[in-house]
Specification:
The chain has one helix spanning about 80-85; strands at about 10, 20-25, 40-45, 55-60, 65-70, 75, 95, 105-110, 125-135, 140-150, 150-160, 165-175, 185-190. The chain contains 1 helix and 13 strands, in the order ββββββαβββββββ.
């Protein structure tokens, strides 16, 4: 998903609790001088809500701006953030701003977990959901949907049959309901007695 300016639309998800950074509806009623303007932010469970969507404007030097789709304002750190921290009011550090040029509206993306250091840059976030599962005596068909950046991306169907020793996987595009294959289907056979593809050292594990 992209906005009217061609910027990628993302959702900012907390790795700690799983909620998405969200701008509440009351933000539309607040002026720039409202003393409670910091209170428009919350964590919300729905990444597809307009208040949880942010247009990511990538800039030079690895910097970016994040503009909320509900209010069309930028995520901003107030100039007085040091004083607010000293007063024990760190929750008031964030606000929204229409000033795209202010240093408080500029951000840099960083990897939050050392487990991700093997990747040079994290370009997308993903979610996997179970759509359907048809069980049979010797296996079944499992269909999963994969979302990328809070939008539908691909649908994958995996079929197993342990009686004859067969596994297949089919990946289709979920964009714009195209339902077209993204790559050729994968078919794999194995020995149903040993669970091995070949020899005795390639056993397939049942998940």
């Amino acid at each position: 998903e992209v906005d009217a300016h061609g910027h990628r639309v993302v959702a900012l998800r907390s790795a700690h609790c799983g909620g998405y950074l969200h701008v509440r509806r009351l933000a539309l009623q607040m002026g720039s001088n409202d003393p409670d303007k910091w209170s428009v932010f919350t964590l919300y469970e729905d990444a597809k809500s307009v208040g949880s969507k942010w247009a990511l404007e990538e800039l030079a030097g690895g910097q970016c701006r994040l503009q909320n789709l509900r209010t069309q304002q930028f995520l901003h750190v107030r100039e007085s953030f040091t004083n607010l921290e000293d007063m024990g009011s760190k929750e008031k550090v964030f606000q929204q701003s229409r000033n795209a040029q202010s240093p408080g509206s500029l951000w840099k993306m960083r990897l939050a977990s050392s487990d991700l250091f093997s990747a040079s840059i994290l370009q997308h976030s993903y979610t996997v959901n179970l759509v359907d599962y048809k069980h049979s005596r010797y296996g079944g068909v499992c269909t999963m949907s994969v979302g990328r950046d809070a939008s539908s991306w691909i649908e994958m169907a995996v079929e197993t049959n342990t009686e004859v020793g067969f596994v297949s996987a089919c990946v289709k595009s979920a964009l714009h309901n195209s339902n077209s294959l993204m790559k050729l289907p994968l078919h794999m056979v194995f020995d149903p007695l040993t669970g091995c593809i070949s020899g005795m050292q390639s056993r397939m594990l049942k998940v």
